[in-house]
Amino acid sequence: MATVEIRFSALPAHVRTARLVAAAAARRAGVDEQLLDEIRLAVGEACSRAVGLHRRGGLNVPVTVTMGGEGERFVVAVRDNLGDPSGLAAPEPDGWDDVMLGLAVLRGLVEDLEVHQLADGAEVRMGWPAPNHA
Amino acid sequence: MDLTLDTYTLEDRTVVRVGGEIDVYTAPKLREQLVDLVNAGKFHLVVDMESVEFLDSTGLGVLVGGLKRVRAHDGSLHLVCTQERILKIFRITGLTKVFPIHNTVEEAVAATD
Fold first, then answer.
1. How would you list the strands of the sheet with B101-102, edge to edge?
2. A84 to chain B, minimum CA–CA distance in Å?
3. Shortest CB distance from B23 goes to which of A16, A92, A94?
4. Closest to B60 measured CA to CA, from B35, B82, B79, B83
């Protein structure tokens, strides 16, 4: 399905780039302009989650984001490579687990959301209507 | 757009005016500002978010951390926000029940806990 794929080092600075690319790809896929803010936020959350897991797990591999049209949907999949999340370093010093808070935002925000645990990581898959997608 | 922070005093409150994007990259800067204020003995804070263009869960986490810090000193943290796209994130996470959210800085300063 992918028409755009990006791979980036697990650095917070790159999450903004992923958000911008996702919004541009969604617009190109024919997604309603009113959904672009939601897509920006959702992709940012999914990427922040992956970056947070990679950093806490000490992983030196990139986060992968694929996005594109699937039928009349615009689908974004964000993939981390943390096989076993147990034994991670403690969350942020404020005591709030940003990864869990990010998932809470995603679940409240995106109707079409699936989180798949894979052998070598997890994939957050999100979709939005793109009726004009060619 | 990067995060901008501007701090001033209004009556007995310290107002932090935040602009730009609060995300996983910029949120540490806001966290540092809130920690510095608390360490300087400023326990009654108002965070003015009217110029915030983007907020994610990392930013929410920083605000919650700030609230916990001021409350440890019997302080308060009020928010100013009227932007629907930002308010939506507070609602999704149930944090509208945790933070007092006001329409104006004046209203937030006048509020009592």
1. B4-10, B13-22, B44-55, B76-80, B101-102
2. 23
3. A16
4. B79
- Asked whether the beta carbons of B75 and B97 are under 8 A apart, the reply is no
Taking CA–CA distances from A38, the nearest residue in chain B reads B85
* Residue span of the structural domain in which B104 resides: 4-110
The count of structural domains within chain B is 1
* Domain residue spans of chain A: 4-129
The CATH number for B8's domain is 3.30.750.24
Assembly ipTM: 0.87
Question: A105, B25: Cβ pair inside 8 Å?
Answer: no
Q: Are the beta carbons of B65 and A95 separated by less than 8 Å? A: yes
Q: What is the pLDDT of residues B38-90, one digit of tens each?
A: 999 999 999 999 999 999 999 999 999 999 999 999 999 999 999 999 999 99
Per-residue pLDDT reduced to its tens digit, A81-132: 887 666 555 555 555 566 678 888 999 999 999 999 888 889 999 999 998 6
Of A40, A44, A101, the CB nearest to B61: A101
pLDDT at A65: 97
Q: Which residue in B21, B30, B31, B57 has the most chain A C-beta atoms within 10 A of its own C-beta, making it the best mutation to test that interface? A: B57
* CATH class belonging to A4-129: alpha beta
Q: A133 by DSSP, 3-state: which?
A: coil
